[in-house]
Amino acid sequence: MKASRFFISTLKEAPAEAALASHKLMIRAGLIKANASGLYTWMPMGLRVLRKVERVVREEMERAGSVELLMPVVQPAELWQESGRWEFYGKELLRLKDRHERDFCMGPTCEEVITDIVRKEITSYKQLPKNFYHIQTKFRDEVRPRFGVMRAREFVMKDAYSFHADYESLVRDGYQPMYDAYCRIFDRLGLNYRPVAADTGSIGGTGSHEFQVLAESGEDVIAYSDASDYAANIELAQTLRLQGERRPSEKALEKVSTPNVKTIESLVRFLNIPVEQTLKSIVVEGENEGEIVLLLLRGDHEFNDIKAEKLAGVKAPLTFAAPELIRAQFGADGGSLGPVGFKGKVYADFAVEKGADWVIGANDNGWHYTGFNFGRDAAEPEFADLRNVVEGDPSPCGKGSLKLARGIEVGHVFQLRDKYSAAMNAAFLDSNGKSQIMEMGCYGIGITRIVAAAIEQNNDGRGIIWTDAMAPFQAVIVPMNYKKSDAVREAADKIYAELCAAGADVLLDDRDERAGVLLADSELLGIPHRIVIGDRGLKEGKVEYARRTDSEAQSVAVEEAAAKVLAALRA
Ligand code: ATP
Ligand code: MG
């Protein structure tokens, strides 16, 4: 491709609202242009990257036995009503009406559509297992679209769905092959990633993994063991029940005045006590109307709502109790609450079980208790895992202790079991002629997010650093003075022709710009291999070759330049 014919639109400065390196660089390199919040045009340069990602994904999906189809972006409401998600999905689902006032939505994912197709097409065990995928635009009306295409409203996803006669087949023919294909995809794209166990929500079990690209800016937190393969999203990573005896109490219960103290920080400051000595109270709605449940955890620990939602007697989705309800039950407001005198269900975090002499709200605004002890001052609560793990916690696998890292979720594999197939009656006849509900798995990859995640992981002060597999062009030829110098033009054209003939994806930057601009652009664009051609070098029959990651260029003979690049691409 010649740059003069292609479209390059680079910027010196990134827009002020771009916070992440990847967002800034994608805009500066002209890969994307914003149209509205969370909506982007993929410009020619960016689209080339997107297509390369798609190509790798397609190859590995095909290799794993998945079959491509293409489902629509606009989906009928009836299917979503059948699965129950028309109600459940909430505002992220963009709903629309057609001219006949019929309800539709913009597909955020395609479980309903594929299940509808499969239940009509597949009737016998002989047609199972099957795995379908497509690469298609999705729409999610995200609360906070941000970080460019990382969390957009419209984005491209590869989603696959597998259907099976039984659970063994789901794991053996669906989940495991997809898991392996994902590893190959992310390996080929050169990402530093980690598969981590993930929450399965109401489906339960252990059948879900996220593929997390490790990056400081990631929105997810991953906990992993320093002594084993254990890795899980912090949403899921369990804390263990403590061993040994409870510490004996040394203090009597005492009610102390704490005027205007409403947070743990102000409590710690006001009483000058260690935060580990405090308990915080979280009040959520119970399963039955009007019921509330009190959750207690150490002041320095972070509440984990996903764990709490699964506790017996707690309403799902987790709902914090309204201030009026709290006031009616406790006689006090949030910030002054505790278990003393509370008659309802109380859960306390495992980390609290062996402690004594806690400082906690007194159910009287502006008052706290010191020297609070379970069993003595209030009934023993039920102990449960309510918090996020912290660095240094013992690993739930039993080996080593946990460390934390941040990640960007680029893929997700999930054993759906019969969640959709039962709701939508996707049944088949087994070998005994008996009707059975299919087992189902789903497997997503954020195609557009991968582009941002790769840049987040690989960039420097000068721009993007692509791997060969993802780069918009594998190599760039930068001629200095292409228009004026015949020697430079001839050498550039010759190397360009050689590389094209060999099938390399090469950009000849023949734009009429200063050499400095061309060089800076090639670095901003992150093209992995570069040949610079100038009159001075040509006098000795030389050009310069460098990788994007090299600090210095090598001088190579003009005749060997193309071969040099091709050898590097093969390596
Ligand atoms: P997240 O927790 O980041 O919102 P999710 O759990 O909602 O992701 P899935 O429903 O599993 O995501 O979708 C599959 C993949 O689609 C994700 O792994 C991610 O790579 C991508 N994805 C999801 N939401 C977005 C978005 N708003 N913008 C870009 N990519 C997205
Ligand atoms: Mg989401």
UniProtKB/TrEMBL annotation:
Keyword annotations of the record: Aminoacyl-tRNA synthetase, ATP-binding, Cytoplasm, Ligase, Nucleotide-binding, Protein biosynthesis
Main location: cytoplasm
GO biological process: prolyl-tRNA aminoacylation
GO cellular component, one term: cytosol
E.C. numbers: 6.1.1.15
CDD domains membership: ProRS-INS (cd04334), ProRS_anticodon_short (cd00861), ProRS_core_prok (cd00779)
Substrates-to-products reaction catalysed: tRNA(Pro) + L-proline + ATP = L-prolyl-tRNA(Pro) + AMP + diphosphate
HAMAP family: Pro_tRNA_synth_type1 (MF_01569)
Similarity section: Belongs to the class-II aminoacyl-tRNA synthetase family. ProS type 1 subfamily.
Domain notes: Consists of three domains: the N-terminal catalytic domain, the editing domain and the C-terminal anticodon-binding domain.
Entry function: Catalyzes the attachment of proline to tRNA(Pro) in a two-step reaction: proline is first activated by ATP to form Pro-AMP and then transferred to the acceptor end of tRNA(Pro). As ProRS can inadvertently accommodate and process non-cognate amino acids such as alanine and cysteine, to avoid such errors it has two additional distinct editing activities against alanine. One activity is designated as 'pretransfer' editing and involves the tRNA(Pro)-independent hydrolysis of activated Ala-AMP.
Stored PANTHER family: MITOCHONDRIAL RIBOSOME PROTEIN L39/PROLYL-TRNA LIGASE FAMILY MEMBER (PTHR42753), PROLINE--TRNA LIGASE (PTHR42753:SF2)
Record note on quaternary structure: Homodimer.
Full protein name: Proline--tRNA ligase
